[in-house]
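Design request, tokens follow.
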């Protein structure tokens, strides 16, 4: 697939051939849904916990005698029937929400997500992106110029995938609204689908291609 390449000043500088086995994979919505669902479930911490009647404080004394009061019989004020009593079948910290997805499925879903971005023209390909100083103002100016000059740079959240860690770009982007950075080795279907625009450089494409060519590198 031939795709236009832009400079960081928004000028079209040529075209690049995107790897067919990465950016032209057939859309498999069921696979993508299953993998994204598992990744969302794996992010759940499971820290919510309720107390049973045996864990709630107090309730050692019978609230009133068994017979003769005209009221229903009760053994403890910590019964689930009482206000402030224990909870029946409530959440516990020991519960795990993790779902296992094998590496082959995660890799295939990531390819589907990348292909969908390219197909929908939600991908913006840059020749390179460099800044002199780690200043938010400088990075914001580059993004504003790209939004103005690049037709398929749509409004919405943007993810810039770095080929490797770049401290200047990371620091300069940290305070930008609806803009985030991530290293190529950390991308996942859930992350890609959380952003409208995907910003890549030609070096990032090479890094992604290298990742898929190496066995078991996609986690």
């Amino acid at each position: 697939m031939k795709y236009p390449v832009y400079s960081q000043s928004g000028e079209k500088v040529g075209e690049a051939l995107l790897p067919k086995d990465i950016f032209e994979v057939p859309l498999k919505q069921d696979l993508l849904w299953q993998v994204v669902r598992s990744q969302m479930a794996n992010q759940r911490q499971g820290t919510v916990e309720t107390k049973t009647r045996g864990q709630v404080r107090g309730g050692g004394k019978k609230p009133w005698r068994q017979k003769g009061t005209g009221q229903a019989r009760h053994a403890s004020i910590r019964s689930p029937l009482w206000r402030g009593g224990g909870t029946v079948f409530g959440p516990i910290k020991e519960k795990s929400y993790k779902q296992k997805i094998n590496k082959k499925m995660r890799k295939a879903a990531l390819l589907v997500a990348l292909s969908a971005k390219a197909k929908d023209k939600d991908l913006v390909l840059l020749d390179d992106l460099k800044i002199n100083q780690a200043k938010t103002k400088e990075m914001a100016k580059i993004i504003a110029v790209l939004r103005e000059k690049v037709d398929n740079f749509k409004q919405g959240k943007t993810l810039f995938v770095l080929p490797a860690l770049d401290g200047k770009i990371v620091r300069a982007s940290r305070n930008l609204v609806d803009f985030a950075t991530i290293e190529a080795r950390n991308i996942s279907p859930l992350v890609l689908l959380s952003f409208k625009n995907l910003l890549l450089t030609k070096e990032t494409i090479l890094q992604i291609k290298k990742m898929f060519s190496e066995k078991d590198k996609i986690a």
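Comment from the thread starter after seeing the answer: thanks! The chain has a mean pLDDT of 91.
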